């Protein structure tokens, strides 16, 4: 006896789109509606969605195990105010779940042997070391992510017939594909998928911007600076003459004003992750990134105790999703450090704002009692008039067990001027960070291969040579 | 007075999907239906769609100009049998249209200043020299392309929950994105987008196949051979032990049997282009690539006269689309050389079949009166037991104006054995092609940088050093 032929599912019949757009409005419907929802109404919406996510999580082996080990029982979670009772988890727990049950782990909530087929798509974490962590998305999960991405691009000024040049890595990680889907499906603009410099060399990227009249650029700030300086200093073309309307980036603590002056265009900051796409984004006022609070509950917590901190104080972001069917995240410790901006945004939006992403808690280096973030060093490097903004931090341990950081910075200065620049930067670091760092100057482009600036999706700013158990 | 805010279109409301799936059925609905349609019924369907395409083309400046210059008038085209009266056009005409009206040319049939916005996506030609040629797709154009891609993958054995590893270039060109959309939206399988070796190095590609248990590989044959040999000869892993169910390729005249033996999996050939996606594909019988004749009319024509040739004879493919709203193609000379397979396929499908793509007319080298295709040389190289299949043809002109071709081939043989191999290949070329070629042996991997094997979407097999006007 043959088994019956499997049904082949089609994406567009697996979702009720009009219903989904009522739940998660797009573009101006969002901006004029949910974005301005009174706080109490928003809280009620969050609570309803949160309880549904918790119920879903109880069906998934990962949460059953993790929560039961902490003594959590279903009756303990009756409302959003019980959130603090739920034990957070981290990427280490996800890695452990992958190892327990390869290749998908037991946190997706999908069983291919039992569940009827549905259209699935997969992306992964960056995977800078080892195999990247895979994440599957159900049609509803992915579509909400596309809606949120479309929303943020609309908030950031992308309009029908705009040409948006996406210079992000295209492959297993999420950034490039998600931008393409959000632009194409929900803004009326046209995605121009050039990928990183490894796929489309920088001079070809420039040729495309000029010939096709690209209106927005999506890229990492370091790459935008790299292109801008190449245009200005080598090709003798003023980047501002290209008529770019917006620079859409993950800004972190990079120098916004410098980039804006270079390109003559506003910088729009975004907070996005591989697990759930766009979580927060600058509106046209650029006073902080509005969290999509109909789709997420974000808490800022002390990195050590994981207890919530007050608005304005820095801590790690704990993510709770309000829409995911596969791998819902409930108090996921993202390791990203940010703070909530107190007060209201002039745009009239009621959703809370993240200040910026200051860095990653696991990228933080403790040097003689002081917390040092490579990102903060980068911000100081970029301030120096003879710097092109490129830097790399290297941490070593000497025979006595003492930790040292050397900061390599690129400059086209020569001889004595180089030494002066190094001394100025060392002074500035000591003054701003309270710790002594060594500074070494190198020629422009020399760090490229080690940071991955032209070829990788994320630029590497820290090399930690200390033994793993002594950090 | 402010202009009213532009409406932001959403992809899924710009199409009537159930209606579209009736016109262009997907997966098994296609295989059990339109694929077996009696010839007369299929012809009637083609005729109806063809006349609608011609009507659309008369609205587009490119066709107005091109057809009017040839004296064509609307009343001349009354049925599909009038096809031969329409003047073909080539990529040169498209380039000319782009130059006339940058950046989009005048063949799209879209006017951003007048037409209401709709969700658009853009991909380009490969762009090996100069800026790639852009092509825009309306929602209907793209969705039909996705349906056809899903169809072909279903014909080629892709089933729900399969993992399909796509090792094609991801960027401006179409191949990788189209595969992702077709797999995801219309097969129930999961696309695993690793890109070329430039994005995911070959050893990481292998690690992913093994760990995630990939079921199908989508790549160029040269890259599949490269991976298979690396597995077998360097990692000492039998590629057949990975359990790959199918190799989905643009085969051309590459050696099917050798690839199938290496991987222990069937090879499925496909004919696809940037302008309109998947045009024809092998079914499970693999007796030639069934043309999707509800979406295309393909003619095989003499490359010089452009007059149709008989079934079984070789010529260039003239493409006529039956579904495109933007840039419909009517008798587009693709430059791809193929032939129609006479007779019927055991699968019961009624649509005609292409034998294979023998090469490109513009890649053909005339050497002392003989037509030589690099692809045919590659097929002979692959037959040699000491070859890894890698080769590169270089054409030069000596002072007397005489053309010479040198074929570089990779081998790990040394000393005298190398010389013997070179002599054997030179004899084989003379015998099979009727022309004398020089042969030079080089070490494995040595051609990589010049052919682009590990990094590019299309592998380069011909370097023509002759002056452009003397070819």
From TrEMBL, chains A, B:
Record GO terms (molecular function): ligase activity
AMP-dependent ligase C-terminal domain segment(s): 369-466
Coiled coil (residue ranges): none
Listed PROSITE patterns: AMP_BINDING (PS00455)
InterPro entries registered for this protein in UniProt: AMP-bd_C_sf, AMP-binding_CS, AMP-dep_Lig_C, ANL_N_sf
Keywords from the named record: Ligase
Pfam families reported in the protein's UniProt record: AMP-binding_C_2
Name of this protein: Phenylacetate-CoA ligase
Organism, scientific name: Pigmentiphaga kullae
Lineage per the UniProt record: Bacteria, Pseudomonadati, Pseudomonadota, Betaproteobacteria, Burkholderiales
């Amino acid at each position: 006896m043959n088994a019956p032929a499997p049904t082949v599912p089609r994406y567009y019949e697996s979702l009720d789109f009009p219903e989904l757009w009522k739940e998660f409005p797009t573009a101006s419907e969002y901006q004029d509606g949910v974005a301005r929802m009174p706080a109490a109404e928003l809280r009620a919406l969050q609570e309803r969605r949160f309880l549904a996510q918790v119920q879903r999580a109880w069906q998934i082996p990962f949460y059953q195990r993790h929560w039961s080990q902490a003594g959590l029982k279903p009756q303990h979670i009756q409302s959003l105010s019980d959130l603090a009772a739920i034990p957070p988890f981290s990427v280490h727990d996800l890695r452990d779940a992958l190892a327990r049950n390869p290749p998908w782990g037991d946190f997706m909530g999908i069983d291919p042997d039992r569940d009827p087929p549905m259209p699935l798509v997969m992306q992964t974490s960056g995977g800078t070391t080892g195999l990247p962590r895979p994440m599957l998305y159900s049609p509803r999960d992915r579509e909400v992510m596309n809606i949120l991405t479309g929303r943020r691009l609309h908030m950031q000024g992308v309009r029908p017939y705009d040409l948006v040049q996406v210079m992000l890595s295209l492959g297993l990680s999420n950034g490039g594909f998600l931008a393409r889907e959000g632009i194409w499906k929900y803004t009326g603009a046209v995605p121009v998928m050039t990928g990183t410099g490894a796929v489309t060399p920088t001079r070809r990227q420039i040729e495309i911007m000029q010939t096709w009249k690209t209106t927005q650029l999506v890229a990492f700030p370091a790459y935008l600076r790299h292109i801008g300086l190449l245009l200005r200093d080598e090709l003798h073309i003023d980047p501002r003459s290209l008529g770019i309307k917006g620079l859409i980036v993950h800004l972190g603590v990079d120098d916004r004003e410098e980039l804006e002056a270079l390109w003559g265009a506003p910088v729009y900051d975004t907070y996005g992750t591989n697990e759930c796409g766009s979580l927060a984004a600058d509106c046209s006022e650029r006073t902080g990134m509005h969290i999509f609070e109909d789709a997420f509950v974000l808490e800022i917590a002390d990195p050590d105790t994981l207890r919530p901190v007050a608005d304005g104080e820095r801590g790690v972001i704990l993510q709770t999703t309000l829409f995911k069917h596969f791998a819902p995240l409930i108090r996921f410790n993202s390791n990203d450090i940010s703070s909530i901006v107190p007060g209201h945004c002039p745009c009239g939006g009621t959703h809370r704002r993240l200040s910026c992403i200051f860095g990653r808690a696991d990228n933080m280096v403790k040097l003689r009692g002081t917390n040092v973030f490579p990102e903060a060093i980068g911000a100081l490097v970029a301030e120096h008039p003879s710097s092109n903004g490129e830097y790399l931090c290297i941490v070593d341990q000497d025979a006595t067990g003492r930790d040292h950081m050397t900061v390599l910075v690129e400059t086209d200065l020569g001889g004595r001027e180089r030494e002066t620049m190094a001394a100025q930067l060392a002074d500035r670091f000591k003054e701003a960070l309270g710790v002594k760092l060594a500074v070494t100057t190198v020629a422009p482009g020399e760090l490229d291969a080690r940071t991955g600036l032209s070829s990788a999706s994320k630029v590497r700013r820290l090399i930690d040579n200390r033994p793993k158990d002594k950090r």
